[in-house]
Amino acid sequence: MTTNRPVFLEVWRIRLPIPGVVSILHRVSGVLMILAIPVMAALLASALSGPQGFAAAAAFLAHPLVKLALLLLGWALLHHLFAGIRYLIIDMGFGVDRPSARKSAWTALSAALVVAVIGGGVLL
After folding, report:
1. Which tens digit of pLDDT belongs to each residue from 73-85?
2. Which residues fall within 8 angstroms of residue 26, CB to CB, at 6 or more apart?
3. pLDDT category, 124, cuts 50, 70, 90?
4. Which of 9, 67, 100, 119 could lock 95 by a disulfide, CB 3.0 to 4.6 Å apart?
5. By C-alpha distance, which of 78, 67, 73 is closest to 22?
């Protein structure tokens, strides 16, 4: 069977609708949070080991690249939260039509960015 459908093998040329982008970012944010668990557990163990460990953990967290990573992790948490709430609402049958799905996707995406930037201003 031969079809004349275009085949885009270049991932960067595929244009997803905003609900698709939010869905992919929801998965990416979940993976980022899972990968951060061992690092955060090691930092907590170091901070609880004594005054020297606490000072080492505080010095590590004061580095600008680590603060940037924490900002990214904060965004991941917020995006996962807002997109997860969006998916729960959609699972209840609300906002399933295309205009509502687009509006809720933009709301989840922008809310996570705004709250992360506000929280990052306090962090940085």
Report:
1. 999 999 999 999 9
2. 79, 80, 83, 84, 87
3. low
4. 100
5. 78
What the chain holds in terms of domains, given with CATH numbers, is: 17-123 (1.20.1300.10)
Local structure of 32: helix, strand or coil? helix
Q: In sequence order, what are the residues at sequence separation of 6 or more whose Cβ sits closer than 8 angstroms to the Cβ of residue 69?
A: none
Burial of 94 (0-12, 13-18, 19+ CB in 10 A): exposed
**pTM of the model as a whole:** 0.85
As a whole number of angstroms, the distance between CA 103 and CA 98 comes to 9
122: its two tokens? 């306090």
Cα angle 92, 76, 95 (rounded to 5 degrees) comes to 20
What is the reported pLDDT for 1? 61
**76-86 burial, b for 16+ CB within 10 Å, e for fewer?**
bbbbbbbbeeb
The larger pLDDT score, comparing residue 82 to residue 10, is at 82
CA distance 84 to 80: 6
> What distances in angstroms separate CA 7 from CA 1, 3, 20, 108, one per listed residue?
15, 10, 19, 31
